[in-house]
Write a structure and sequence with these properties.
- The protein is mostly helical and 118 residues long.
- It contains 3 helices and 2 strands.
- A two-stranded antiparallel ribbon has the order 1-2.
- It is rod-shaped and about 100 Å long.
């Protein structure tokens, strides 16, 4: 932002000079208000991004816990069912809730395995 410098002309009367300076001050105040508004909006967006990042980190941690649990569950499994590999895949955040609500995972035997809830 560039501002024109205002030179007070000694030939003009003092009231004219005062009005010009007051107008410049009002213009600067408006620009400052815009800057403050933009700063507050940016601060709000940064906070929202931080919260979203925290949520993604939490989901990643939950996925890793789930993978570890499934690895431990199938560690000694000698079955030939191809579903074991599919069960070990990570759940994307958008489907995480539906996966948790499904509450069952296939096991090597016909019985089902319940996901423990926190």
């Amino acid at each position: 932002m560039s501002h024109k410098k205002i030179y007070v002309n000694k030939n003009n009367n003092k009231n004219q000079d005062t009005l010009v300076l007051q107008q410049e001050m009002l213009d600067l105040q408006r620009e400052l208000t815009k800057i403050i508004h933009n700063y507050e909006a940016a601060k709000y967006q940064i906070k929202a991004h931080i919260l979203a990042t925290d949520e993604l980190l939490q989901l990643g941690s939950e996925n890793m816990d789930r993978v570890d649990s499934l690895k431990n569950k199938y560690n000694n499994c000698t079955c030939s069912q191809p579903t074991v590999q599919a069960d070990l895949q990570l759940t994307p955040p958008s489907t995480m809730q539906s996966a948790v609500n499904s509450d069952t995972i296939r096991d090597c035997n016909p019985a089902t395995y319940s996901i423990p809830r926190d």
